Amino acid sequence: MLAPRPRVLTLSAKESLILELLTKGNRMYGLQLVAASRRRLKRGTVYVTLGRMEDKGYITSSLEDPPSKTGGLPRRVYQPTALGLRVLAVWTSGAPVLIPEFAQ
Amino acid sequence: MTLHERLRAVAVRLCSARAIERLIDPALTDVELEHREALAQGRPWRSRWIRVAGYFAVLMIIAVRGYDRTLAAWRGHEGRALARAVGFGGAAFLATAFLLISPSAIRGGVPPNQLPYLFPQAIPLAIPVGIAWGIFYGLGGRPVSVGLKSAMLALAFAGSAGSLAATAWMIPAAGHAFRESVRLTTGKEVTGTPGGVEITIHELRRRLDVLTRSGRPREARNMAFVYHLRWALPCAPFVLALFALAVMPRRPVRPWIPAVAACGACCSYYFFLAAADMVTHQTLLPVAACVWFPNLAFVVASAATMTAENRLCPYAHG
Q: A80, A97, B84, B211: most buried by Cβ count inside 10 Å?
């Protein structure tokens, strides 16, 4: 039987941006991330990216208590995990060395 | 039912429960809450815009999710099954083409550099055989998803288009080029008039009209048979693919069974075609009906098999 392939931790540009925003804002919901990204994240793809990041273990989500003013719908909010923060730290320190264009 | 509920209902049909929980519900909730917030702030136009953009975003999520799932499926089991079917089909196509070309090449003493001119003549027969073998041998003995069936039917459709191109243009052009090549290399003219298969469809139609007008019914029927065959024969890959997908075994079977089934399907089709040729020449039945009968028979048999199987086991066809 073949040994399981070791998991390679990858971080796309969008994932890195989401992690940066979550590090600053701590707990944010999807549209809040879109607004905070200044159009770099799109409404149509942010949730798919968040889902992928959750599968990779970079972020975690939970349902927040429904706001009393606006009705009884609970929002899903996202926050970075320790793994996500470590990957972001490695990426931000290593990327300018590996990819010079990144530093510009 | 509101648009919000309608969209969620569509997503439930197309996405997994996890995708609904992690992707669709958060997106719909965010849109709904932003919409209500905008209304509470007295900004009705902004609230409408939030809904339109938000629902479009949800549609995008459904599309992206569907694309991801399809890609994952094709990379795994489905992709391997398709590659196996294409591999077996390609091998059967080449073997059939070789078997069809070699007797005439050996008997006629055709030099190797002129063999490519004979290849187009094998295409209309080799493609249906390749398709049937690919499906029976590559996909037989296991359940086949709707996506894989659609991919095979798309391949068969492409095969039919290739076969039409071969019968309509490639074979006449290759026949003409072969005669020219022989004349140039040996200095002799190839005797014998070009047969029906070497005439273009347009020319065939013109000759058919001349024969019909000149009151020679027997020759006209012969020419009509060749003319209709030009259109009916290219349908064979698609028709045989439909039949093979309908009747192929879905449980593991002995290895010789798919081979016998593939041979049986191809031989039956060409037996019907030979019978149609005989009936055309010996009776006064409409030529088009005789020529198209094998295609019709196989389509009816496929539809009947699928209907019967769906009645017995509703999930048998994906």
A: A80
